[in-house]
Write a structure and sequence with these properties.
By secondary structure, the protein is mostly helical. It has one domain (2-437). 75% of the residues lie in helices and 0% in strands. The chain contains twelve helices and no strands. Helix 6 runs antiparallel to helix 7 (199-246) and helix 8 (248-260) packs antiparallel against helix 9 (274-333). It is elongated. It holds the Pfam family 7tm_6. GO terms for molecular function: odorant binding; olfactory receptor activity. It comes from Apolygus lucorum. The chain crosses the membrane at residues 43-67, 79-102, 143-164, 304-325, 345-364.
Length: 439
């Protein structure tokens, strides 16, 4: 990870700071997937990239592999289900976090573009446009807070409350002579280099697994917040572009009146006025520039989130199916009612969280596609029939831009859409049936 370390930043870019606020990038900075090398933070992230991130992920990927091997050796189906679910999450977000860190320069550019704004209209920003941008910022903020509460609740319940409750009751280990040597009573069902059979070793395992586990939860949360924040800025600008195109005559009239005086009534005869037509052409030119900036912003987003979408889509089906499998297995084999209730609740919560996570990736990807399709309709609704040939040529240029398939995808392989959501849910049920059949 040392190759991603930058020199200490000596000043802030105002546009980048605004962009960070708009997309709630502070969560990505906190999670370590978007390092901040300004001031004292430089020293922390040097340590993080040199030691903390590679050390923790290397260790936990190794112990999950060892736990999986032990589960196969003892044919412990419950352990295999847990390791497949939690281990898949670890591997996926190890790769995703490394990719985001490697793309820091592109993320910086996205922050500056979002902070500066993608439009550059000659008229002042309208109240409607301010409302759109404010609603996108507020929506991202509300999601960031809500998802953080949800993920903190899941992690503290799963890795915090239930293990410590067992420990305080003296249940330090689940290992017996007939089971795999993996303790399922600690926060994570992974191999440890020592025997956990007393309070001291239990507490060591508890804290050395709880803290990295919470760090990984923060990475999962930050990836989704960053994705949603960027999608919100993209869809917001597409909405502004559509509204601006539909208000072209009014914008042209505003520019005309600024130079030639107030017009009492808008009449079709204005389209015969050479100066009014020039104003219309200036307005459509501003729209084309805005559209071009939106396309640049989209392509930059795709280059940043493409791999993360691929990794998440590839593994989420397995995560959902193994969570459901673990829940069914505990309900079938466990005799202790309390354990059945608590574990079923935990795995149901995990099943819910990762299904919601997948849904959000697909839903916001679909919104980007749908909003882009509205641009073509808005272009057709412009007064190209009444305007001159120069205006019509500009409309054709803008239509050629709108033909770009603005679909966020997993490296061009799978689109982030509602159709993909259904496909992955179907795949999850197929995985679940396979696990049940192999029991």
């Amino acid at each position: 990870m040392f190759v991603f370390i930058r020199e200490k930043e000596l000043k802030r870019d105002p546009n980048a700071m605004i962009g960070r606020r708009l997309v709630q990038a502070r969560f990505a900075i906190f999670a370590g997937i978007y390092p901040d090398f300004y001031g004292w933070r430089h020293y922390y992230f040097v340590i993080f990239l040199w030691i903390i991130h590679p050390g923790l992920y290397s260790y936990f990927v190794m112990v999950y592999v060892l736990s999986f091997v032990e589960g196969l050796r003892y044919m412990d189906v419950e352990l295999l289900g847990q390791v497949l679910c939690l281990g898949t999450i670890t591997v996926i977000y190890c790769l995703v976090s490394i990719y985001y860190i490697a793309k820091k320069t592109d993320v910086d550019e996205l922050m500056m573009m979002a902070g500066k704004g993608l439009s550059n209209y000659s008229r002042p920003t309208t109240q409607e446009e301010k409302t759109i941008l404010d609603s996108k910022e507020k929506s991202t903020y509300k999601y960031a807070i809500g998802s953080s509460i949800m993920f903190v609740s899941v992690s503290l319940l799963h890795m915090g409350f239930l293990p410590i409750r067992r420990g305080l009751k003296g249940q330090y280990t689940s290992i017996t002579n007939d089971t795999a040597p993996i303790n399922k009573y600690t926060p994570l069902p992974v191999w440890t280099p020592y025997v956990c059979d007393d309070l001291t070793t239990f507490l060591i395992s508890y804290f050395t697994q709880l803290i990295p586990g919470c760090m990984e939860i923060s990475i999962i949360n930050a990836c989704c917040i960053l994705y949603i924040g960027l999608c919100q800025q993209l869809t917001g600008n597409l909405e502004i572009l559509v509204n601006s195109l539909r208000q072209l005559p009014e914008r042209g009239l505003h520019m005309f009146e600024a130079e030639r005086g107030i017009v009492e009534k808008f009449t079709p005869e204005l389209y015969q006025n050479e100066y009014f037509l020039r104003c219309l052409n200036t307005c459509i030119g501003e729209n084309i520039e805005h559209q071009y900036n939106i396309i640049k912003f989209y392509k930059k987003i795709q280059s940043v989130v493409g791999f993360s979408i691929l990794a998440i889509f590839s593994g989420t089906g397995l995560i959902i199916s193994t969570a459901a499998y673990s829940m069914l297995l505990i309900a079938e084999r466990e005799r202790d009612t309390e354990i059945i209730i608590t574990n079923s609740f935990v795995w149901s919560f995990n099943l819910f969280v990762y299904t919601v996570l997948l849904t959000l990736y697909c839903y916001y990807g679909q919104k980007v596609t749908d909003k882009n399709e509205e641009v073509l309709e808005a272009l057709y609704d412009t007064p190209w029939i009444e305007a001159d040939m120069a205006f019509r040529k500009s409309v054709i240029i803008a239509m050629s831009y709108s033909q770009l398939d603005m679909t966020l995808s997993a490296m061009g392989l799978i689109s982030a859409s509602l159709a993909t959501l259904l496909d992955i849910i179907k795949t999850s049920f197929s995985y679940l049936n396979m696990l049940l059949a192999a029991r």
